[in-house]
UniProtKB/TrEMBL annotation:
Domain of life according to the entry: Bacteria
Keywords associated with the record: Cell membrane, Membrane, Transmembrane, Transmembrane helix, Transport
Region forming the signal peptide: none
Membrane topology label: Multi-pass membrane protein
Subcellular localization(s) per the UniProt record: Cell membrane
Species this chain originates from: Kistimonas scapharcae
Keyword 4Fe-4S: no
InterPro entries for the chain: BP-dependent_transpt_permease (IPR050366), MetI-like (IPR000515), MetI-like_sf (IPR035906), OppC_N (IPR025966)
Name of the molecule in the record: ABC transporter permease
Family affiliation: Belongs to the binding-protein-dependent transport system permease family.
PANTHER family assigned: ABC TRANSPORTER PERMEASE PROTEIN, OLIGOPEPTIDE TRANSPORT SYSTEM PERMEASE PROTEIN APPC
One Pfam entry name: BPD_transp_1
Amino acid sequence: MSDAMIASQTAADQETAPLSRWQRFRQSTFWYSFTRDRVAMVCAAIFALMVAAALLAPVLAPTNPYDISTIDIMDSEIPPIWDEAGDERFLLGTDAQGRDLYSTILYGMRISITIGLCAVLLQAFLGVVIGLTAGYVGGRVDSFLMRVADIQLSFSTMMVAIIVLAVFQASFGTELYSKLAMVMLILVIGIAEWPQYARTVRASVLAEKKKEYVEAARVMGFGSGRIMFRHILPNTLSPILVISTVQIANAIISEAALSFLGLGMPVSQPSLGSLISSGFEYIFSGSWWITVIPGLVLIVLVMVINILGDWLRDVMNPKLYKG
């Protein structure tokens, strides 16, 4: 067999060989639109960088803001390094307790992102289960679950969170609340926002359950649980992903607002919101960096998540996408 025939046969075998998951992903519309949207690429890079910095906080941070032995109160309110009164030991200056602001922001960003992601996972779990059940079962079950969702939506997330957290803090004391602050924030923010998922998933299920593949699954004797989670759920993932992106930003903002009001993370374990709150009283005394720099980090974090959410919504909706 000649070399030309061997090369031709090899090329034919490569064309007929099954593509790997990465190759299929590279050929997808999602990847195509992402690589041609510079704004989305820049926002994704910034978000990935911030998440990596938060995860690697113990490695990147010069000091541990949770270790009291490394903090000197005499170093309090030192300006950033570019200021004439700055200290080269503290890149972004220090806060009122003498903690390195750069280190504190890294640790605080990790807490904010963790609360945002965990709260959204809880929202998605509750909303998907309730939405699937309501849409697939229908009837009185559907009516009852959607009325519960309507009642939940009639209350502001912040109002519910403020009442629940304030009552918990007053009932069980500040010390216990400080230990359970992260868990309480995840539970309150997660439980308060599940109707967003439930209503969206229910609408998708009502459209999907009338299709032939669902009828075929019923004829084959599959149970309702398997049909809902193995067959219908994968076809409702697009709106779930879009909602999740937006809800992560909302959860981070909610945590920051609650921390600013004194109902979030304690001063000993600061998030971005509690950092802004702790430095707000010093902003008029000249120590603007304690509040402004964490505030800018929070703005950038929420902004890139929202931009990615808008881009993802357009890509997932063919009627909106014009790439």
